[in-house]
Amino acid sequence: MKKLLLLQCKNLFIQLNGGSGKAVQTCSQRINETSHRRRRDAGEDDYNIEILLGVDDSVVRFHGKEHVQNYLLTLMNIVNEIYHDESLGVHINVVLVRMIMLGYAKSISLIERGNPSRSLENVCRWAFVQQKGDSNHAEHHDHAIFLTRQGFGPTGMQGYAPVTGMCHPVRSCTLNHEDGFSSAFVVAHETGHVLGMEHDGQGNRCGDETAMGSVMAPLVQAAFHRYHWSMCSGQELRRYIHTYDCLLDDPFNHDWPQLPELPGINYSMDEQCRFDFGVGYKICTSFRTFDPCKQLWCSHPDNPYFCKTKKGPPLDGTECAPGKWCYKGHCMWKNPNQVKQDGAWGSWSKHGSCSRSCGTGVRFRTRQCSSPAPSNGGQDCPGVNYEYQLCSTNDCPKHFEDFRAQQCQHRNPHFEFQGARHHWLPYEHPDATKRCHLYCQSKETGDVAYMKQLVHDGTRCSYKDAYSICVRGECVGTKCWTPANWTAVQTKQFCC
Fold first, then answer.
1. Sign of the four-CA dihedral 362, 363, 367, 368
2. Dihedral (C-alpha) 53, 58, 62, 68: value to the nearest 10 degrees?
3. Residue stretches of the annotated binding site for Zn(2+)
4. What is the pLDDT of residue 11?
5. Between the chain's N and C termini, which has fewer beta carbons within 10 Å?
6. Residue 19 DSSP code
7. Rounded distance, CA 451 to CA 437, Å?
8. What is the pLDDT of residue 16?
9. Which residues of the chain are modeled with pLDDT < 70?
């Protein structure tokens, strides 16, 4: 019987970001193929784990669509550095080949609260469906890492993974709870299980290494300034590594944005506190330590004297004083050659197609913070990266008038409820916050079912309100709009 290992979190002060938020369209970072894949020579020592990174809507909403990609790239760079530690005894590269950010509906369908086994199974099957059929494709992955801020298990559970699943088409995957950059150790730990590593001290003689920050400790105490792979982890890895043929390929070159050498350059201590403990948390000011880089202490303005820590330092490169940054747990003078570059917006894209052909739809345009991109601690671009406007405002023919009814009707052949198919009628939820989610009522039984998706952009929020429509899961007013009005999503200023 295949075994699954659970990882319990040492720090229990974990706050999930609540609220439904906006849905994010599923997206995939496309890779430019710049070299031909080849099988490595037998004498070479490197193993390459090519990663599909799946990120659900809870992570995207918490970090923001404008910032989440750089955050994830930084997190994966830290995971790669953990696997480069000499104590492992085997040189493994963690190579990101594809990133997929899931929308709200898909996210809640994969993660079942309180059911880690089913959640992992859902995630692994999802990753299997994403696999590229051609092993020579630039986005073909060896292993899938899935990040969520949803609670998929009991309090404190941080990861779930199949043991020795590496290279298996359905079992080479991990489910990880994301709560700040320390999650890199959770990801490294869970991937270690997939590579064949056991918990230190459980069935081996390495229990005494856990207090010193071993990555595979049952209760992970590793931190940025103190971590290593135990002797047992190295032995267990070497027992299996030669059976993982998928790790023998040289990876393609990929065009991910360039990040600074020190990850903390882009993230203040306040930001790292928010990542670790939730919205509102900032660096604790109730007491001052001699060196703020030794340990990151955080508190919430509602209770400023209650300070929390994950017992690790801020990231290397985090500003700790004017002209200084953290490095290996110490506040040191910055390199004078480091120059900040603030980001600037590129031009707007052309607007996309209208979401409806009649009855008022929505179309979008986007821009990138790339002219130039922020670097070396420079400021990100202000404002939002997409805007939308009304379109197709002409009235629909009578038989097309009820857009919500059309969407429910389209679910008739696809959505089973209580073991049977139904004729679905439109249903307006009494909770105003849920009216942009598709609920339908059975013609046969009168039961109401959630279709696990948002209504299409342009659907009226309510039959009682002719001037409000749903846009990406939120109800917005249209009474004062004209077709020429571009409206930034973030400002919520919908009237002229």
1. positive
2. 20
3. 189, 193, 199
4. 30
5. N
6. S
7. 8
8. 25
9. 1-44, 289-290, 336-340, 375-378, 479-496
Complete DSSP assignment for 360-422 = -EEEEEE--S-TT--BTTPPPPSS-SEEEEEE--SPPPGGG--HHHHHHHTTTTT-EETTEE-
> Residue 323 is encoded by which pair of tokens?
């002209």
Binding residues for Ca(2+): 50, 142, 246, 249
What is residue 226's DSSP assignment? B
Active site residues: 190
Amino acid 199: pLDDT: 95
pLDDT at 42: 31
Q: H helices within 84-203, ranges in order?
A: 104-110, 116-130, 183-194
pLDDT of residue 336: 53
Q: In what order do the strands lie in the sheet with 460-462?
A: 460-462, 465-471, 474-477
Residue with tokens 């109401």: 448
Q: CA 384, CA 477: separation in Å to the nearest integer?
A: 19
The string of pLDDT tens digits covering residues 120-160 is 999 999 999 999 999 889 999 999 999 999 999 888 789 99
* Alpha-carbon distance values, 356 to 114, 360, 393 (Å): 39, 7, 9
What's the pLDDT at 44?
A: 55
Binding residues: 50, 142, 189, 193, 199, 246, 249
The span from the first CA to the last CA of the chain, in angstroms, equals 64
Tell me the two tokens of residue 215: 């990555």
Tokens coding 303: 């209770």
Longest alpha-carbon distance in the chain = 75
Report the distance separating Cα 291 and Cα 465, nearest Å.
58
pLDDT digits (tens, 9 = 90+) for 212-267: 899 999 988 888 888 999 999 999 999 999 999 999 988 888 888 888 888 999 99
pLDDT of 36 reads: 42
- Strand duo 173-177 + 143-148: pairing: parallel
Q: What is the pLDDT of residue 382?
A: 79
Q: At what angle do helices 183-194 and 68-83 cross, to 10 degrees?
A: 50
Residue with tokens 């993982």: 244
Q: Give residue 451's Cα distance to chain centre.
A: 24
Q: How far apart are CA 199 and CA 233, in angstroms?
A: 8
CA distance 465 to 360: 14
Contact, 309 vs 295, CB < 8 A?
Answer: yes
> What is the amino acid identity at position 487?
T
pLDDT of residue 25: 30
Task: Please report, for residues 105, 118, 424, 441, 443, the alpha-carbon distance to residue 448 in angstroms, rounded to integers and kept in the order given.
Answer: 17, 25, 9, 4, 10
